[in-house]
Amino acid sequence: MARPLSIRLKRFARRVLPGTAATPPKPKLPLTGFAEHRTEAPLVELLDDETLAELNDLLPWRSFTVDGKGRRFGNWTRPGRRDQPQPVPDPRTAVMDELFDLHDKHVIEFGCFEGIHTVGLCQLAREVTAVDGHLENVVKTIVRTAFYGHRPNTFLFDVERLEDLGFEVDVVHSLGVFYHLREPIHHLMQLGKLARVGVFIDTVVADPAKATESMVVDGTAYHYERYEEPQGRKAVRAGLYDHSKFMLVDDIVRVLGAAGFEQVIPFEPVWEREHLKATIIARRTPSPAWDAMGPRRTLEVPYNA
Ligand SMILES: C[S@@+](CC[C@H](N)C(=O)[O-])C[C@H]1O[C@@H](n2cnc3c(N)ncnc32)[C@H](O)[C@@H]1O
Fold it and tell me: Is there a single domain that holds both residue 109 and residue 230?
């Protein structure tokens, strides 16, 4: 498929106008002086400023945490994008802990990116497996979690191939990944075989008005919104293929039910940066505490993937 004109133009400009069309160097963020979201990190705090700056330059970080001394570990994406210290644990991970009581659970994190949510999970869960489809993210997760003193089982893995994983877990942590999938229905059905207790999915979903494409999976028709991912594997925050499919919340709920989760609760979707975002939680065995939440309510946690 031809690449969109904007990307072709950028590439052409880079070839003929070296030094002018390339992305300008990222302005530097300060290393010190961050007051918000300090997270104790004894192994980071052992580093002098010069060595921490070296660690921050060593890998192409696009997000950052702050150590107990208020120093940056990682980097921003760009001004306005992941340009603030990230809390550990992420508020959604904390909600997930309230819902699933993670202390005795094995959690798998899909799309661990740079390991920030992974550190929070390691603080809360008995065991953590963290996977990502981009090698660069796997390396960054291993480095970040090691500096926080954790050793989650971290490896390169495409979550569209869950049938190849070879083990079960208790809970699935899926933030900002589901909407990058090319075969989301197959993925949801596989979750039924993977998760002994439940799943927490935070994702972009289809705007019903734009769900104009359709597909048939196992004899059932689904509408979806097609999303082009023209950079494929090259964009390290994106999916692994040329496009993904945004699904309708009601279909996600239905398929999770068919996959074996007896209690599925969709929180009220919200609009954020022109996309409809939803959180959907599911349990294999219903919990009365979850029933008390009512069928739909607002989850008061901002989505920031
Ligand atoms: C938008 S980022 C979200 C990162 C993080 N979970 C968060 O919420 O901030 C999407 C992440 O999912 C990963 N990803 C996308 N498609 C994947 C796939 N098929 N298998 C594994 N990881 C994937 C990307 O590499 C990236 O790290």
Answer: yes
184 lines ligand 1 (CB under 6 A): no
152 and 263, same domain (yes or no): yes
- Residue 304 included in any domain: no
Q: Are residues 195 and 106 part of one domain?
A: yes
266-294 residue pLDDT tens? 988 899 888 999 999 999 999 988 887 75
The residue contributing the CA closest to ligand 1 atom 15 is 239
Residue 291 CA to residue 137 CA, distance in Å, equals 37
C-alpha closest to that of 201 among 272, 120, 299, 135: 299
For 200-237, the pLDDT digits (tens) are: 999 999 999 999 999 999 999 999 999 998 887 888 88
Distance spanning both ends of the chain, measured CA to CA = 27
Query: Would you say residue 273 lies in a domain?
Result: yes
Pairing of strands 263-266, 275-283: antiparallel
Domain that holds residue 24: 13-74
CA of 109 to the centre of ligand 1 (A): 10
pLDDT digits (tens, 9 = 90+) for 97-125: 999 999 999 999 999 999 999 999 999 99
Ligand 1 atom 16 nearest Cα: 239
